[in-house]
Amino acid sequence: MATTREARSPRWLRLCRADEIGEAQSRGFDPDDEGQDSLFVVRWQGQLHGWRNACPHVGGAPMAWRRDAYLNAERTRIVCHAHGAEFMPDTGLCVQGPCRGERLINIELVVDADGELFAKK
Questions:
Q1: Contacts of 5 (CB under 8 A, 6+ apart)
Q2: Could you tell me the pTM of the whole model?
Q3: What is the CATH number assigned to the segment(s) 4-120?
Q4: Distance (Å, rounded) from C-alpha 99 to C-alpha 7?
Q5: Whole-number Cα distances in Å, 82 to 35, 58, 75
């Protein structure tokens, strides 16, 4: 994980305050202002995990069916709503569906001393 000083460099994008993402919640981000979230963050068992918003099964298809809807109803797995693949929120490993055994692409995150969440570009 990066240091606080590194997070303030141009290699990092500020996303939000870390405490704005509650336990077993997800939130998407569009840091390049492209009109579609390119990454999302999940808080799972107290830890924040960042993922590229791209399903490994369907050529990088977006995962959510509506804004910030990356988790199943039980909030225990990340779901690709295009075809129902299920991924573990902490490892990105697909455990159910056509891309079983593949993984989501991890995005490195850091929370600075002020509680701000940053993602590596």
A1: none
A2: 0.90
A3: 2.102.10.10
A4: 33
A5: 19, 8, 18
Q: Which two tokens stand for residue 109?
A: 């995150």
Q: pLDDT at position 8, please?
A: 60
Contact between residue 80 and residue 69 where contact means Cβ atoms under 8 Å apart: no
Distance CA 120, CA 106 (A): 10
Domain boundaries, the chain: 4-120
CB atoms within 10 A of CB 8: 15
Q: How far apart are CA 99 and CA 3, in angstroms?
A: 34
3-state DSSP assignment of residue 4: helix
Question: Residues with Cβ < 8 Å from 1, sequence gap 6 or more?
Answer: 108, 109, 110
For 17-54, write each residue's pLDDT tens digit. Answer: 999 999 999 999 999 898 999 999 999 999 999 999 99
